[in-house]
Specification:
This protein is an alpha+beta fold. It contains one helix and eight strands. It starts with a strand and ends with a helix.
């Protein structure tokens, strides 16, 4: 049974840590992992400035990892969280970094691409193309709202 090591870095600014539940899903060319809770027993996960590692076991090799989905769900009280990056170590020993550098507020999920630069014509799968288009649409909507508010 293949195992991936997922390392998550929490920002070092004030109130960057969280006590909420954090889940990860790995998306590869050959399949998808189960949604996995990132939690160590008797350990305070995702504290400010922390770098935490977790093993994610899958039934079969996922192929090349394309996307990482991070989800934050409320534990007790609503708690924002600043995720700097996620690193995935594959069963073959390769490391992939997925930059995040954003706040996850409320019950939110974020889908991350790896940190290597890719041109749109180099996107290999429909899933990655679809993710790129969703990200562009979201940014257009965000900036359009900011432009309209300035008027």
């Amino acid at each position: 049974m293949p195992s991936y090591t997922v390392t998550v870095s929490t920002g070092s600014q004030w109130f960057a840590g969280t006590d909420d539940y954090v889940y990860v899903t790995l998306v590869g060319t050959e399949g998808c992992s189960e949604r996995t809770l990132l939690d160590k027993a008797l350990y305070n996960d995702f504290e400010r400035g922390a770098v935490d590692s977790y093993d994610v076991r899958v039934g079969e090799n996922l192929g090349e990892i394309l996307l990482v989905k991070i989800e934050k769900k409320k534990y007790w009280v609503q708690d924002d969280w600043y995720c700097k990056y996620v690193t995935v170590k594959t069963p073959s020993g390769d490391y992939l970094e997925f930059p995040c550098f954003r706040w996850l507020v409320d019950d939110k999920e974020v889908v991350l691409r790896d940190g290597r630069a890719h041109l749109p014509q180099d996107d290999k799968t429909g899933l990655v193309k679809q993710h790129r288009q969703k990200e562009l649409d979201m940014r257009r909507k965000t900036y359009k709202q900011k432009d309209e508010a300035a008027l």
